[in-house]
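Sample pair:
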Amino acid sequence: MAWASDPGLAPDGGLAQSLPMTFRACTVFRLLLILPLPALSLAALPLAPSPAVAQQKHSIDALAEHLALPIASGLAGARNAATFGWVVNAAGVRNIWVGGPDTPARQLTRYTQDDGIELSEVMLSPDGRTLAFVRGGDAEFPDSSLPNTDHLAQTPDQQILLATVDGAGEPMVIGAGHGAAFSPDGSQIAFSRKNDLMLWDGKSSRTLAKLAGDVGRLQWSPDGKVLLFREDRGDHSLIGLFDIAAGLLRYPGATLGDVADPIFSPDGRSIAFIQLRDPPASQPDSQASFWSIHIIDRDSGDARVRWRAPAGTGGRYYGTRGRNLFWTRTGELLFPWERSGWLHIQAMRAEGNDGPRDLTPDANEVENFTPSPDGKSVIYSANAGNLDTRQLWRQSLVGGAAERLTKDDRFTFFPVFGGDRLAATSTDARRPAHMVLVDGMKPLSPVPVASNFMPPQVVTFQAEDGVTVHAQLFPGKGSGQRPALVFVHGGPRRQILPGFHPSYYYSNAYVRNQLFAARGYTVLSVNYRSGTNYGQAFRQAPDIARQGASEYRDVLAAGRWLAARRDVDPTRIGIWGGSWGGYLTALALARDSDLFAAGVDLHGVHNMLRPTGAGLSPEEDRKARQLQWDSSPLGSIDRWRSPVLIIHGDDDKNVDYGQSLLLARELTAREVPFEEMSVPNERHDFFRYANWLAAYRAAEDFFDRRLTGKPPETLPIRGNDDD
């Protein structure tokens, strides 16, 4: 099953701080500046300067300018109209944009502050005339405690707002919650609020039902009479049906496991869903059959297994980054399966006994997909022919060769239909994520360009055990032997490409690596084993994570590969990364301080101990926990000598803030030099641009002092009254 986020422990809060952000170098206390920036709109944002101008700019200004480049996300399309909506984040100022092939893009909302308030879950009515979105909360953890990253006197609510696409009037709040779904006629909206199932009827909102678990994948039946959803109850999940007129709640087809991606048949009479289990703790590598596809009769509740994955490769469920089950108008079920060792799209008749057909045998790895509105073809994003790229393809459901829709000069993700027109998210080495019409790759709105960014080089090298590792090399500017950095991404279920990433977090990391290179560091960004898009054998490699940290072999090989280069000073190699990348950074410093001279660890995992799961004998449990400990940075901390900068937000819901508190205590006891930045009220993927800017400034300052001997940049001080 795909990991949705970096695994951590349950949060336990953090240390109260009176300042918006603190940065201490052991016993030295300093304030980090956060430069106030004007609110930016996409149309008004200045483009990055030419290389000649950039060389004259202070590096801090370059960082602020490039991190401020707008990044678009959350593309959505109307079912019956060629209208699209999306979110643009420019220097932390988030706004909703709308547009289409015949409608010039325009900004629909008028927010002006870097306030850390997320906009998410863009949803258009079927006719494309109205748009709903969520403002506030945490899109990754929508039912968690609400974030307050701007330190406001009152925590911002999580609200669903409704706006007219023509821009008439201000967006209207319809209720607190998330997961909005328009009714088929667009007159009503269903949504959830914690454990409540809610309905807005065009005038007011009311509670339909109080549930035992969290609601996800909420959708209407085609006749507008029944709501379908997935209810997560922690250790299992269920398919839920709510009859609006009768006020009746049912749970048909319940199983001893989890369910995923429920979907109505086109006529609304049946429901399909994926049923899955994880292997037991005693047999984590079992290739038994752990998932199947079920079909339920909506009225009777009768359920049947349409297909069960056979044992062997692909016997354990793994899905794409998006919806994973579709029921087309032509009666086909579309879903992913990695029977070949690669994630491919399968087609299977909903009615019948035939097995699935592999629609994408040459795709390498499919990352996301969607059927065409007529149900005759599927559009998918994959790395066919080049593992380190991402292109869109169209495949007919009746067979034949796939049609390539995009070109090598850019990366394209997340295909979305608006009516019968296709749009997607696109990036390249110089342009951050923006929305395009796939036909002609015409941008839906103006696109900023980092004109002085050079495309990184794709390189490969071998780990000690013979595994081939893919990476991107950012050659450092200058002559002679230079300092170098290894960058390790988080996830770990992720792949970094040689260009801007479509996510906000890794778009920022790409900017940071480009500017490290401009500052004279040679940077190597590593796609280590356990990451995605290199096949199941690479993602599920033996002894990864808590079972032995075999992915660290790739990180170590990256450091040694850099050390062997003539243009790199082998005594000045640093390492940095966040989340799982923070874990690997800490592991590198703990195990190999002789190679890695310094590191920046953003919200990393340092103690890998966690419950091993039911089913292990006491002796098996002891051995499993010992292996977890040996896979932890703390398991090798007595060998840690190199200095490190630790950065963590104390409201992190992905990786417990206590992981960094623990590391700071252990390093203090061993007199290992470290510096620290605590970010009060901030989440894992920092919600405020100002916090990213300050953290990345601190990283630059740290590496400059530790690896180059340069003095820190002169930073003006601002008071906490401006935060």
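The first helix runs from residue 51 to 56.
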